[in-house]
Amino acid sequence: MAWCLILALAPGCQGSAAQIYIPLGYGLTGLCIALLMSPTPLAAVVGFIAGVLLGAAVYNNSLKHQISARPGNGPPSGGQ
Description:
There is one protein chain. The chain is an all-alpha fold. It has a domain at 16-66. It is built from three helices and no strands. The chain has helices at residues 2-9, 17-37, 41-68. Helix 2 runs antiparallel to helix 3 (41-68). It is flat and about 45 Å long.
């Protein structure tokens, strides 16, 4: 039931592929590193979650940079 609801509502979401793939890529990298260090299920979960959070922060930071780099969003000029 939950999957049907997610699939039904997904087309209405305004998102991009980068919004999903960047955190997912970091999450999988964190999972692999955690499993190399300590091959336990708990390490896998912690590594994946830490990677996803780091990836979301990286995506959010790059999004803020793109928004602030748009023309017209700069600091006001002195105009004297």
